[in-house]
Amino acid sequence: MEWLRKSYQSRPRNLRRGVKGTVRMLITVRPSGKVSKCVIIRSSENAALDSYACRSVVRYGKFEPALDASGTPIEDTVVLALMV
């Protein structure tokens, strides 16, 4: 996932000092594959890390969209766990 590498390289300085955690998010993926919304559903217990994870997924995230019965891309929600 190229977008994940870009996201990691752009993390804030205060998160480059070994701050780590897992953030679980509910994301909305548009038919284009871009993320339009992110909601934290399980915190990493670090507000800065949670905020960074959601901002990064919305800014850089690119996914295969869900398809309806006729094969047309549709908007969908997905649970995503991200270790940062």
Tell me what you see in this structure.
The chain is elongated and about 45 Å long. The protein has one domain (2-83): TolA/TonB C-terminal domain. The chain contains 2 helices and 5 strands; from the N terminus they run αββαβββ. Strand 3 and strand 4 form a beta hairpin. Helix 1 (2-9) packs across helix 2. The protein is 26% helix and 33% strand. The mean pLDDT is 86. With 84 residues, the chain is α+β, with helices and mostly antiparallel strands.
Task: Give the topology.
Elements lengths: L1 H8 L12 E8 L5 E8 L4 H14 L5 E2 L5 E2 L1 E8 L1
Antiparallel strand pairs: 1-2, 1-5, 3-4
Helix pairs in contact: 1-2
Main attributes of the structure:
elongated, TonB C-terminal domain-containing protein, membrane, 84 residues, two-stranded antiparallel sheet, 26% helix, TonB/TolA_C, transmembrane, TolA/TonB C-terminal domain, single chain
